[in-house]
């Protein structure tokens, strides 16, 4: 293993350069990057819906809730796949709501932390309030959400690309 780590790795170099190219593309084309996120979310929604409908439901018998949930997953998946506006708004709102939900949860959990550490309590309350404000901004501005997600993806590819190049040399 040590011999392999200390040698030049052309595959890691090529992959690192590819990741950096993807990062640059993501920075230059944030809406295309966000569209790919929507396509991945649509495929996940469709897969989940079909899985529930044709794999889980037969074992449970006729369950109305599961059938409705599966059909809703399938409809949302197709809407995201074939209606760009719906996909952008749906994913943006979903991310904003997840952001708000996590921030409110952290704020609620801060009550328990207060008993153990005032420093962490203040930090959690501060971060939660920032998260709630950011969640509200994201909720009312899908374009900011799309660009933010694209930039985070670009940053991730950039970091992994640089890491792969360093490890390759």
Topology of this structure?
Layout: H1 2-5, H2 10-28, H3 30-60, H4 64-82, H5 84-113, H6 118-140, H7 142-168
Helix pairs in contact: 2-3, 2-7, 3-4, 3-5, 3-7, 4-5, 5-6, 5-7, 6-7
How would you explain this protein's 3D organization?
The chain has one domain (2-168). It is built from 7 helices and no strands. It has helices at residues 2-5, 10-28, 30-60, 64-82, 84-113, 118-140, 142-168. The protein is extended. The model has no long low-confidence stretch (mean pLDDT 90).
Jot down its keywords.
0% strand; Acid_resist_chaperone_HdeD; single chain; mainly alpha; 169 residues; 7 helices; Acid-resistance membrane protein
Overall structural domain count: 1
Please provide the ordered H/E string of secondary-structure elements. Answer: HHHHHHH
Number of strands: 0
Helix content: over 70%
What do the pLDDT scores average to?
A: 90
Assembly status: single chain
Q: Which segments are poorly predicted (pLDDT under 50) over 5 or more consecutive residues?
A: none
Q: DSSP helix count?
A: 7
Q: Indicate the structural class.
A: mainly alpha
Global outline: extended
Q: Measured on Cα atoms, how large is the radius of gyration?
A: 21 Å
- Please report which band the strand proportion falls in: under 5%, 5-15%, 15-25%, 25-35%, 35-45% or over 45%: under 5%
The description of the largest β-sheet is: none
Gap between N and C termini, in Å? Answer: 16 Å
Protein name: Acid-resistance membrane protein
Pfam family, one: DUF308
InterPro entries: Acid_resist_chaperone_HdeD, DUF308_memb
Organism: Pediococcus pentosaceus (strain ATCC 25745 / CCUG 21536 / LMG 10740 / 183-1w)
